[in-house]
Amino acid sequence: MSTYQQAVSHYTRQITQTDLKKGYIRIFEFLSLLRSWMIHQCPKETISQIYQGMMDMSYFAIIPQSIKDSGLKIAIVYLHETSIIEVWLSGRNRTIQNQWFKLFESKSTRFLLLNQTKGVDAILSHPLQHQPDFNDLEESIRVMAPEIEEVIKEMKRYVKDILNESKPK
Q1: Looking at CB atoms within 10 Å, which of 29, 106, 132, 150 has the fewest?
Q2: In angstroms, rounded to a whole number, what is the distance separating the alpha carbons of residues 137 and 150?
Q3: What is the strand order of the sheet 112-113 is part of?
Q4: Tens of pLDDT along 87-146?
Q5: What is the pLDDT of residues 48-83, one digit of tens each?
Q6: pTM score
Q7: Are 119 and 144 a contacting pair, CB within 8 Å?
Q8: Is the CB of residue 105 less than 8 Å from the CB of residue 113?
């Protein structure tokens, strides 16, 4: 088990002696470009700034008007340890997230329903089939865009269907 001092020394060596910094910067160039594309595609939606995270995940959130009052948001997430982009449906806070998890539990969906244990930040998760080519960011977004749009549309529809089911008849 290393000490904090050893861990920071290792981190400093990695930044100065490898391409770690170059790769880290490129990840955020990709997320920034993807966020700009989303702003252009969804001008009426609220889109957050990029959350850089703790080298575990980085994301930005899309808060569609149609699900905003439900306390839900959709996040485009980059997972650093696997270099995978996922689309998540998340709650504004843990209470909302747990309430929606219970509603989704009995439903069938193509998305992965995540058990609400400590540290889980999503209710539903969908890893994208296409992952970024960090040598060609614009082409990556062009290839990934249709799937991202479809997943967001389907998640919004899924929430709307559950809301309609829970209304008194």
Answers
A1: 106
A2: 20
A3: 46-47, 57-63, 72-79, 84-91, 124-127, 112-113
A4: 999 999 989 998 998 888 888 888 989 877 776 789 999 999 988 999 999 999 999 999
A5: 999 999 999 999 999 999 999 999 999 999 999 999
A6: 0.90
A7: no
A8: yes
